[in-house]
Design a protein that fits this description.
Blueprint lengths: L1 H5 L6 H16 L4 H29 L7 H24 L13 H9 L4 H21 L9 H5 L2 H20 L4 H21 L5 H10 L6 H11 L2
Helix pairs in contact: 2-6, 2-9, 3-4, 3-6, 3-8, 3-9, 8-9, 10-11
C-alpha cells in the first residue's frame, strides 16, 4: 500500500512536480520561507475557485442540477475564508518580516501578499497542481458523473481546515526561530505527504479499501464511507 501512495503516477505527477519545484526554488534562494507559508495560505482561495468550477461542470455535463448552488457555495465558502483570513492576519502581524497593520483589511492584506516579489515564482506551482488534478482526475475519471453538485459543495472544508492549521503552526517556527528554512522544508514535505495520501484514496484503490474498512461501522457501511472519502479527498 505504501507503494500505491508514493509511487509517481499520472494522477499524482502534478503533486510531485509542484513539490520538487518549490524545494528547488527554496534551495536557489528564489523564495524565502515566509513565501512558502503565504503560497499555501493563498491556496485556500484556489481550492474554492476550482471547487466552484467542479460544481458547474457537474451541473452542466453530469446528472446534477441547480446552478443556484454555485453562488451559495461561493458565499458561505467566501465567508469562511474571510473569518479564517482575519484570524490568520492577526497572527501574521505578530512577526516583523511582513506586517499586516489591520487584520480586517482582507483585500489589502491579500494584495500585500500578491505584491511580494518572489510570490510570482512560487504561486504558479499551486495553480499548476490544481489545473493538472482537475483535468487528469476530475475530468479524466468522469467524477462529474459520480457526484452531485451538493456533495462537491462541502468537499473542500476538510482539506483547508488541515491546511490552515499546519500553515499557522509553521508560521511560529518560521518567524520565531532560527530554523526558518528547515520549517519551510518540513511544511512543503508535510503538505506533499498529505496530498499523496489524499490522492491515493481513489476509486478501486487498496488505500481507499483499507481506510474505509477501518472507518466503517453499522451506521456507516463500507461503501458509504468509500464514497464520502472520495468526495472529501477531492
Amino acid at each position: 500500500m505504501i507503494k500505491n501512495i508514493f509511487y509517481p503516477t499520472s494522477q499524482n505527477v502534478f503533486i510531485w512536480l509542484s513539490t520538487v519545484y518549490l524545494l528547488f526554488l527554496l534551495y536557489l534562494g528564489k523564495i524565502n520561507p515566509l513565501t512558502v507559508l503565504f503560497v499555501y495560505f493563498l491556496e485556500t482561495i484556489v481550492i474554492g475557485i476550482f471547487n466552484a468550477i467542479k460544481m458547474f461542470w457537474t451541473i452542466q455535463f453530469g446528472k446534477s442540477s441547480g446552478y443556484g448552488l454555485i453562488p451559495f457555495f461561493l458565499f458561505h465558502y467566501g465567508f469562511f475564508v474571510a473569518i479564517q483570513s482575519i484570524f490568520a492576519f492577526a497572527i501574521f502581524s505578530i512577526g516583523d518580516t511582513v506586517v499586516f497593520k489591520e487584520p480586517f483589511s482582507i483585500l489589502e492584506n491579500y494584495g500585500k501578499i500578491l505584491s511580494l516579489e518572489d510570490i510570482r515564482y512560487a504561486f504558479p506551482a499551486i495553480i499548476f497542481t490544481h489545473v493538472g488534478k482537475f483535468f487528469s482526475d476530475f475530468i479524466g475519471n468522469h467524477k462529474y458523473l459520480k457526484f452531485e453538485a451538493q456533495e462537491i459543495m462541502f468537499s473542500p472544508y476538510v482539506r483547508i481546515f488541515i491546511q490552515q492549521f499546519v500553515v499557522i503552526l509553521s508560521f511560529f517556527f518560521i518567524v520565531f526561530s532560527d530554523a526558518g528554512i528547515i520549517a519551510a522544508i518540513l511544511l512543503i514535505v508535510f503538505r506533499f505527504l498529505i496530498d499523496l495520501v489524499m490522492e491515493a484514496i481513489k476509486e478501486n484503490s487498496e488505500t481507499l479499501d483499507f481506510v474505509a474498512e477501518k472507518l466503517s461501522n453499522e451506521k456507516s457501511p463500507k461503501e458509504t464511507v468509500k464514497k464520502q472519502l472520495i468526495n472529501f479527498t477531492e
